[in-house]
Records
---
Amino acid sequence: MRRKLVAGNWKMHGSLAENEALLSGVLAGIGEVKVGVAVCVPFPYLAQAQARLAGSKIAWGAQNLSQHAKGAFTGEVSAAMLKDFGCAYVIVGHSERRALFGESDAVVAEKFAAAQAAGLTPILCVGETLEEREGGITEQVVGRQLDAVIAKCGVSALAKAVLAYEPVWAIGTGKTATPEQAQAVHAFIRARVRGLDAGVAKGLIIQYGGSMKPGNASELLSQPDIDGGLIGGAALNAEEFLAICRAG
Ligand code: PGA
């Protein structure tokens, strides 16, 4: 059985004081939660996450990393630096990185490889835009994004990774994919991996992300191929985040 994983993606939100309130709220209610839980915080707050969460049931991670190991890359952060702060996870290929910062499939694959080389578990995001969905090419887009990583790292690399299906049109918009729409793409992803390695496909955690909230989480999380959530907005509120974790 796959153990579900609910991860918060704080994006560019928070402050030392706000994070303290949020983390202590989540820690206070984490006792009854059965799923795995993680928070992906902005780089400057990794030390705070480590200090607050070490020894707890909550893992932490980052939202991006450099594809390079070290060198003259002003402003970049390497996988080894994330390891230094105890990160377990790093989000790779979030649609905001792809769309706003020009990350290609090839760069995303390099970042995925860099994360794994340092012993981090990448959370690889894939997903189509509204235009692509309406054009009937959702599977083509998601398949291409996935194949780029498999081509570089091999299907066996997915045994040490998490996938997140995040339809771009559902992110931060309040428009959630219906459980059926999400399940269909999750099943497609798993089948594609199964075609290469049945064992890897069976163990692969595929999260859903895109306006997951307490009100829609249990229906989404009860779908056979939805193994958790990548939570943006609702992860900034301890009660909402915990409610989603409890729904898993
Ligand atoms: P959202 O963001 O929950 O605010 O839609 C999800 C994400 O971008 O990971």
Note: The first helix runs from residue 16 to 29.
---
Amino acid sequence: MNLGGHVNYLLEFTYLVASILFVLGLKGMSRPESARKGMFLAEAGMAAAIIGTLFHEGIVTYEWIAAGLILGSVIGALMAIWVPMTAMPQRTALSHAFGALAAALVGIAEFSLHGQSMAAFTRGALGFEVMLGSLTTTGSLIAAGKLQGVVRGTPVQFRGQQLVNLLLFAAMVGCFLHLLAHPGAAVFFYSMVALGFVFGIMLVIPIGSADMPVVMSLLNSYAGLAAAATGFVLANNVLIIAGTLDGFSGFILSVLMCKAMNRSMRNVLFGGFGAVRHTAQTQGGEMREIRLDDAALQLAYANKVVFVPGYGLATAQAQHAVRELANLLEERGVTVKYAIHPVAGRMPGHMNVLLAEANVPYSELYEMDQINPEFPTTDVAVVIGANDVVNPDARDNPNSPIAGMPILEVDRAKSVIVLKRGQGRGFSGLENPLFYKPVSNMLYGDAKATLNSLTQAVQQV
Ligand code: NAP
């Protein structure tokens, strides 16, 4: 009996199951209601892929695999437990860096083992794998550093930068083309790797932290394509499928984020957004503060209240506090809705994840296009740590750097209560005329503490 053949079928079958689970997982993640299930399906897919690989006939020893599995699992578990929700974007960037480094290292190992004897197609795939893997590693590390604040967040720019980047890119691709013609040219191979690492840094430093989420999903896409190229090098089907899914979903996400900010990909990558600290525009009017009791009265006697969460809700971890206040208002017969802007917070779906954690019903979450027509009939719009996504300048001022970005039009509500700690700007660094409008009232303080106090105050009404 040919056991090897059966093992091979088993391996390919587990890969097929894994690939189907990845596709179903991605589909699940496209809607908040099914996102959690989607994550579980994708996890099961990854488990199937790992278990299947353990039967691979090419495995020489299990000791190194066991060591890698244990080390990787421990690091992954610790990151999942200890990294706070607010640091999730930089944690994700680190994961991309690890994934891309793995692809680059596999490529280097393959070159040193079979570089001379590889078929031309495999050599081409290897080149893509190593180039994308190395530039994504350093690019993702810089992105993580910018988001964590350990690398300067504002764009690092200098004269002739784009020319330098172009030359670096050309040199890297030049090494690749030379390798296609001369398989054993190790100097060119390792130069290509080194240039990839440098190019990754140079690609990301001129981009400001505000645009890091877009950069990250683009790097995610590169990491996926590097994994797909690894699949071609190793003749591994699950890597090809998973890498391609990752590559294209990352790219689509980048495009969607650019659309939600009304910016082109070119502007995000080369525009140096946030390089110049925007000077305060002179606003007509003044910011008016509202007393807690008055805010509670407005809420308690409203017919319809719309909560508008932003990045400040995430930093304050105020998702449970807003849910409690919403519950109380609903008990009093107030209609409560949540307005979700596609780029509120610091990563796609940031607000959905937080509100889901606090068990806010999905039926109360409204996307921008659904909720905007409702603001004129809203008695109170409560802005919780949101700033850029409610900045009316994007709609009204064609000279604003964020002109054309779709916004939540809270200024059309009958009354607006803005919860923030002080005069802090949004991530774009721009002044927000909303705060000066006659309809707006400021309620200063940490969002969570303010919401808790509001709940108590509404209970007294
Ligand atoms: P934002 O414009 O960054 O504003 C956040 C506001 O929250 C600040 O004005 C800050 O004011 C306040 N805040 C911070 N901590 C707080 C706390 N503990 N309690 C109460 N308030 C607090 O946020 P946003 O409106 O959500 O906009 C997101 C920005 O990220 C946009 O510019 C968007 O383009 C960008 N972005 C997001 C994504 C994404 O995927 N989500 C992708 C790319 C870019 P104080 O300091 O005065 O409190």
Note: The longest helix spans residues 120-148.
---
Amino acid sequence: MASIHIAADVGEISDKVLLPGDPVRAKIIAENFLTDVHQYTAIRNIFGFTGKYKGERVSIQATGMGIPSISIYLHELIEVFGAKKLIRVGTCGGMNKDIHLRDVVIAQGSSTDSSIVKQVFGGAVNFSLLADFDLLRKSVAVAEKFNLPVKVGNVICTDLFYNDYDDPNGTFGDGKKTFNDKLRRHGILAVEMESAALYLHAAAAKVQALAIFTVSDDLLRKEFCTPEERQSSFNDMIKIALETVIQ
Ligand code: HPA
């Protein structure tokens, strides 16, 4: 039985899933890191693949960009296909002086300007969106084992890629400081657009989730990765995610 947005039969998708936003990245990951690969969906050109990594079945499901899009795939993966360990592998914008292009960032927590938490809890609770502790500590241990540096901390998951958070006169600026300055002061490492949905859905469904990113652009220093530069650090992130998800 397929779901609305994923053309697979139940059983065709592993309970261990990596989640890139970009369908082409999903294909690249499957082709370069997995063996015995088969593609189970191409609905809307949002591809999904199942294969083996070190003998373990792993699926790579693209999610599209942003909270609404990833939420569709999370719901169907978890509720229809029985996903239990979900690791997002994506890009983020570095926001902090300690974060540089091509760094790998692991989201211990996800703060968000999205209304999804309010949709679940009303205004009553500012629910903390957290990584699964078991996946988090395993990912850090894997990174140490393979000598791949990672930065672990809080990220901001935004609904608007083109927001005005770098404008001191923007929505939440105070005329002198930007909203990003405030986020930075509170230790936010990076900005991206999906982790809050991942952590919220995982908490509700009692499954394990983690979000790992490669820094593709640096909002502080106004620097951007070339596509070639993105690829090599992207590979470090995939290795960490795959080694973590099979444990
Ligand atoms: N903003 C939001 N999401 C992102 C960014 C960004 O600058 N870079 C990669 N994902």
Note: Residues 91-93, 158, 161, 191-193, 216-217, 219 surround hypoxanthine (CB under 6 Å).
---
Amino acid sequence: MAVDLLLGLQWGDEGKGKIVDVLTRNYDIIARFQGGPNAGHTLEFDGIKHVLHTIPSGIFHENAINLVGNGVVIDPVIFRKELENLAKFNLDFHKKLLISRKAHLILPTHRLLDAASEASKGKAKIGSTLKGIGPTYMDKTGRNGIRVGDTELPDWKVRYRALADKHEAMIDFYNVDIQYNLAELENDFFSAIESLKKLRFIDSEEYLYQAQQEGKTILAEGAQGSLLDIDFGTYPYVTSSNTTAAGACTGLGVAPNKIKEVFGIFKAYATRVGSGPFPTELFDDYGATMGRVGNEFGATTGRPRRCGWLDLVALKYAVQVNGVTQLMMMKGDVLSGFDKLMVCTAYNYKGDVITHLPYNIEEQNVTPIYTEMKGWKEDLTKMTKHTELPQALNDYIDFLEKELEVPIKIVSVGPDRKQTIHR
Ligand code: GDP
Ligand code: IMO
Ligand code: MG
């Protein structure tokens, strides 16, 4: 049985949580493969809004098993809060939620190191969510990390102490003003570890292999977006994991030839939160309107998201790197009432016109070249069938499909589960 894969094609917050929730009824297992609580995945149904950070977005469906894969980094304190927020839904976490023993733990000192590193960078800061993501993945690749499965071993607290002591020395090295009470943070951490241990830890690659043998359907859920990928994103303004398709193989132990559909999610415009280049960023009323109507504030940090026109050069690159087979366009409703829509179809790169994403996309190297399209006035939020969509929106979709050479199968017209049009 094949594994399908869903991921974001821009700088994150494309609407992955909503679409995973919509698609979950077709799957037995939803498996998160990378990132950690830097993610904020929003789901809306029955008039309630939920933001998930580490827990996969299939958690509300009765029969779906939700798996936190080995590629994910888990902060037990944040994880416990997420579980507490869901308490009123009476979900059977012991049955529905599985954790890979190979997932790495975010320690309190990882969070402090993140803050110290950012403070030391001044204006050049990454704009990290300060959840300790970078330092945790550094310890993973540096072979010093502590994994979920380690907490079942008798000596793990000795290893913890040695690592935390080293982190404290590193925090001192940064020589920035970070106030903290480690004893308090550690109390919280160790009690949250005990809560985590009430869940089922599994050898997830074996679990997923057996599930495939039994014909179970699996959806791999990505976090962040392709332009935040550690290799293919706008480095160094990226996150510390592979957010692109290959990350699902390493983050779950699924073989590449088992991946079937690759669902690529994008907004009808573009947003970015945190620092880093953004060629089509708008500083005018169009951008302000996107931010206001689209309610563009980070689901994890509450920071305002930067907004801009859709960048097809970057989107095409993401489609290519991921091997996207189906596209899903989100937040078309936000653009209702725009008199025109600009779509970036090429870059002027140091005097040359190019249509691929170059090594440097900073402002001084790249000027976007736009194609102007007609806007639409109609409110899309009550529409349920693709035949109702306005002509100008259909023209926009046709144009994108032609440029990207991949069909747009879902058009999302609002945050609710029901505001989803299949084409
Ligand atoms: P994720 O990180 O990719 O899961 O996306 P986020 O949840 O961070 O951000 C997407 C935001 O847009 C959330 O507030 C969603 O509720 C909202 N959203 C998703 N789809 C749509 C849509 O089609 N229209 C509108 N107006 N909002 C949407
Ligand atoms: P979801 O899954 C949007 C951004 C941060 C920062 C950079 C590095 O909700 O789409 P990190 O905390 O990883 O060290 O931050 O990446 N970032 C996100 N932006 N959506 C996310 O997740 C993000 N996760 C990280 O703003 O610029
Ligand atoms: Mg988000």
Note: The CA atoms of residues 123 and 275 lie 9 Å apart.
